[in-house]
Amino acid sequence: MATLIAAQPVTQVAATDLVRDLDLTDDEVQCLLDLAGKVKRTPAKFARALAGKYLALLFEKPSLRTRLTFELSIKQLGGDSVVSEGPVDGREPLKDVARNLERWVQGIVARTFSQSTIEELAQWSSAPVINALSDLYHPCQALADVFTLRERFGELRGLKLAFVGDGNNVAHSLMLTALRLGVDFAISTPEGYAPNAEIVAQAEGLAAVSGARLQVTHDPAKAVAGASAVYTDVWTSMGKEKESAKRRKQFASHQVNGGLMALARHDAVFMHCLPAKRGEEVTDAVIESGQSIVFDQAENRLHAQKALLLMMLR
Ligand code: CP
Ligand code: NVA
């Protein structure tokens, strides 16, 4: 069965970890998208590719999609996983956690409150560490999303993706991933909720190389003008629940509804990483409309992560 790997050559990722989107090179992202397509079309060819490999899934926050699609990904590639819930450093220092895990598993998938937790795990673990969402990034989501866009439109370059809502982890990863692939990216947030300035500066650098355009605004209508995809996420991310009443007021101008969708291209799709709060960042009518591809995104988390594991687990 090991010959299956030889029959399906897989580009290995040069970096040991995926803690930030930019740990992957542009070429590696392109390879990953191609491989995700192959995995999706012919899953049986990869059914034993990671036989004997194990993942540790560390979740400090709830998850449906990320946790289950990582569990399914590794199982469908012939490996298996174990899960730990709760604070990663609740009982001992991160450097000890990392040096335990590296003795048992070939990869660590971590969803944490703080980006620094994932970075410290990566620093101390020889097993690859994959960011399954932190306060700053959600790289696995962005990979599945650009795969979904490519599947829908055939070609990424020249598309415009508009993100309307909070300048959060999902927005950061999408911005970086879209721009490096030549997708124009516009983001509209209420005042005070703009994306992280350092990440915007990195994104500008990527845009200068790829030729894509970046627009950062507080006007949702401007952001969605000419967009092929309108994306939103919850106004209150996990860990910020105390701010939800205040945010509901401050984000009211940033709801994706039929009126806003009508300002995008006529063939525009609606995207959301899920879970969604209907009636807040998106209306029920939009998320249930024919324009909505949110469940394609959710499905593609599986295929994109299978490709990622094939490229990262050695
Ligand atoms: N989109 C996403 O990451 O969903 P979960 O929080 O359910 O993993
Ligand atoms: N921004 C959201 C994404 C959930 C998948 C959060 O961090 O809660």
Would you mind describing this structure in some detail?
The chain is α/β, with parallel strands linked by helices and 314 residues long. It folds into two domains: 2-137 and 301-312, 3-Layer(aba) Sandwich (Rossmann fold), CATH 3.40.50; 141-297, Rossmann fold (3-Layer(aba) Sandwich). 43% of the residues lie in helices and 13% in strands. It has helices at 3-7, 26-41, 65-76, 94-104, 115-124, 139-153, 169-180, 197-210, 220-224, 244-250, 258-261, 284-287, 294-312, and strands spanning 54-59, 80-85, 107-111, 129-131, 160-164, 184-188, 214-217, 229-232, 269-272. The strands form two sheets. The protein has a five-stranded parallel sheet with strand order 7-6-5-8-9. Helix 7 links the parallel strand 5 (160-164) and strand 6. The chain is globular, with a radius of gyration of 19 Å. The model has no long low-confidence stretch (mean pLDDT 96). The structure holds phosphoric acid mono(formamide)ester and norvaline. Norvaline binds next to helix 7.
How would you describe the shape? Answer: globular
Question: How many domain regions?
Answer: 2
Rg, nearest Å: 19 Å
CATH homolog superfamily of the largest domain: Aspartate/ornithine carbamoyltransferase
Quaternary organisation of the protein chains: single chain
Decide which structural class fits the backbone: alpha/beta
Which percent range fits the helix content? 40-55%
Strand content: 5-15%
> What is the straight-line distance between the termini?
17 Å
Sequence of secondary-structure elements: HHEHEHEHEHEHEHEHEHHEHH
How many strands?
9
The CATH architecture of the largest domain comes to 3-Layer(aba) Sandwich
Low-confidence stretches: none
Which fold name corresponds to the CATH topology of the largest domain? Answer: Rossmann fold
User: What small molecules are bound in this structure?
Assistant: phosphoric acid mono(formamide)ester, norvaline
CATH class category label of the largest domain: Alpha Beta
- Strands side by side in the biggest sheet: 7-6-5-8-9
Number of helices: 13
Report mean pLDDT, rounded to a whole number. Answer: 96
